[in-house]
Design a protein that fits this description.
7-stranded mixed β-sheet, alpha/beta, binds pyridoxal-5'-phosphate, 13 helices, 4-stranded antiparallel β-sheet
C-alpha cells in the first residue's frame, strides 16, 4: 500500500475539522450544559447526540469483533460510500475501478464527485478475476470497489481473487458486505489487521431489518477511520437511530432467526420459481434475493405491477438482459408472487 498521506487528497490531509461543543467536552461529571446553544427543555431531544456514537460502537465491538477505533458509523452505507470519494479522489483527475454488474451507488457517487468510474465486467458466472480488475487500474486509480455477496447478481465473489486484489493494489480496496449475514462465506473483517488498505462496509438495512433508521458501518484501520471522522458531518447519526440500533444490538441473536427464516424461504421460492414456464435461468444466491432470467422481463414486470407486486427489473444492466431481481418476502408474499406468475 502507498503511504496514506500519498493516497489522501492534500486538502483533506491538512483539514482542521469542525470542533463541536460535544467534541471539546466529553467528560462524564458535568451536569450543567451551557456550551452548545441547546434549548434546556424537551429532553432528551434537546441535546445534540454523541458525534462519535461511543455507546453504540462499544456494542458493535462485541458483536462484530472489531475495536471501536476501527469503526465508522454513517447515515446508511450511502454515507460510507460517498466519503471515500471526497477523502481520496481529486475531482477531474483520479479514477476508481468497480466490477460490473454491481450496486449502482458507486457509479452515482463517482459522478457526483466528478470521478471516472471504470467498470470491469464479471465473467459469465458473475465471478471475479483479479487480473482483469488490476489491469484496469493506472496511477490515478485510488479505489477498487468490490461487493460480496454482489448486488444484483446475488453470488459471493471468489475470496482468493478478492484477497489477491487487496494484496496487489497500492490504493484502497472497499468490499461492500451489505448481505454478508446471509452468506456461506465469512466476512473479510478478520483480514483488517493485516490489510491496512482494506475498508469493509456493512449495514443494518438488510439482515438487521432496520433500513428505516439509516445506519451503515465502515470497518478499517484506525488511521482511515480518523479521516472518515474528520470529513463527516459532526452529528451524522441522529439520536433516534443510535437508540434504536442499541436496542437491536441488545439481542444480537434475533437476526439469526431472520436469517434462518429468510434462507429457508429463499430455497423454497427458488425451487418453485425454477419450475415456472417463464423462468429460463436462476442464478445461485448467497443473499436475501435472487436474480433470474425470464422469457420477457419487461412484460412480466408490468404484469406484476398491475397485480400490486413489485420486483426489480434489471434488464438494462450489462450481463443481465431479461433479468429480474426478486427479494425474499414472507411465505405469504412469496406465494402470492408464485400464483400470479402461474397465471401469466
Ligand atoms: C442495500 C445495499 C446497501 C445498503 O445501503 P444503506 O445505505 O446502508 O441502506 C449497501 N450496499 C449494497 C450493495 C446494497 O445492496
Amino acid at each position: 500500500m502507498l503511504p496514506l498521506e500519498q493516497l489522501v487528497r492534500k486538502n483533506i490531509w491538512s483539514l482542521a475539522p469542525y470542533s463541536s461543543a460535544r467534541d471539546e467536552y466529553s467528560g462524564k461529571e458535568a451536569h450543567v450544559f451551557l456550551d452548545a446553544n441547546e434549548n434546556p427543555y424537551n429532553a432528551p431531544f434537546n441535546r445534540y447526540p454523541d458525534p462519535l456514537q461511543r455507546e453504540l460502537k462499544a456494542m458493535l465491538e462485541k458483536v462484530k469483533g472489531v475495536p471501536t477505533e476501527n469503526i465508522f458509523l454513517g447515515n446508511g452505507s450511502d454515507e460510507a460510500i460517498d466519503l471515500p470519494y471526497r477523502i481520496f479522489c481529486e475531482p477531474g483527475r483520479d479514477n476508481v475501478v468497480s466490477i460490473a454488474p454491481t450496486y449502482g451507488m458507486y457509479q452515482v457517487c463517482a459522478d457526483i464527485n466528478d470521478i471516472e468510474c471504470r467498470q470491469v465486467l464479471l465473467d459469465d458466472h458473475f465471478q471475479l478475476h483479479a487480473n482483469t480488475v488490476l489491469n484496469a487500474c493506472d496511477k490515478y486509480t485510488k479505489i477498487i470497489w468490490l461487493c460480496s455477496p454482489n448486488n444484483p447478481t446475488g453470488n459471493s465473489l471468489d475470496r482468493d481473487e478478492m484477497l489477491k486484489i487487496i494484496e496487489s493494489f497500492e490504493g484502497i480496496v472497499i468490499v461492500d458486505e451489505a448481505y454478508i449475514d446471509f452468506a456461506q462465506q465469512l466476512s473479510l473483517r478478520r483480514e483488517l489487521p493485516t490489510h491496512p488498505n482494506l475498508i469493509i462496509l456493512q449495514t443494518m438495512s438488510k439482515a438487521w431489518g432496520s433500513a428505516a433508521i439509516r445506519l451503515g458501518m465502515a470497518f478499517a484501520s484506525k488511521e482511515i477511520i480518523a479521516i472518515y471522522n474528520k470529513v463527516k458531518y459532526p452529528y451524522n447519526v441522529n439520536l433516534l437511530t443510535q437508540q434504536q440500533a442499541i436496542e437491536m444490538l441488545k439481542d444480537p441473536y434475533e437476526i439469526d432467526k431472520y436469517v434462518r427464516q429468510l434462507l429457508q424461504e429463499r430455497n423454497i421460492l427458488m425451487q418453485s420459481f425454477s419450475e415456472l414456464r417463464i423462468c429460463e435461468q436462476i442464478f445461485p444466491s448467497d443473499a436475501n434475493f435472487f436474480l433470474t432470467r425470464v422469457t420477457d422481463a419487461k412484460h412480466i414486470y408490468d404484469y406484476l405491477v398491475d397485480k400490486g407486486i413489485i420486483v426489480r427489473n434489471r434488464s438494462r444492466i450489462q450481463l443481465c438482459q431479461n433479468c429480474l431481481r426478486i427479494t425474499i418476502g414472507t411465505r405469504t408474499e412469496n406465494n402470492e408472487l408464485l400464483s400470479a406468475l402461474r397465471q401469466y
